[in-house]
Amino acid sequence: MVVNGHPRAHRLLTAGDFRSVFDQVDVKAACPELLLLARTNADAQARLGFIISRKNCRSAVARNRVKRIAREIFRTHYADWPQLDIILMARPGIDQLSKEDLHRLIAKQLQRLTRRWHKSQTAAAE
Hints:
alpha+beta, four-stranded mixed beta sheet, 19% strand
């Protein structure tokens, strides 16, 4: 049986997890609707966390839609992500995007973040 969930091991759960990313951001990717922050973690797996405030995304339905789409992208391409702790922060206007635009935007920003991380790792190795 194939499990298509998003297990706890792949999530940022505690305040300490989030604080560690904020204290030591290695790479970030931003656009007007969202900000992604990431740091290299000691584990061999990527983890994802969300900060989506009511101020930036008024409707609970819209906040949950953003999280659901981001989790799905993260889950389906999990093998492609490097060992990063990633925080997705919503900005004003994210709730105005259609489902397709939101999917495209999140996927693009996650790929951008991954490229920047690989570039920084290559530069650090030299």
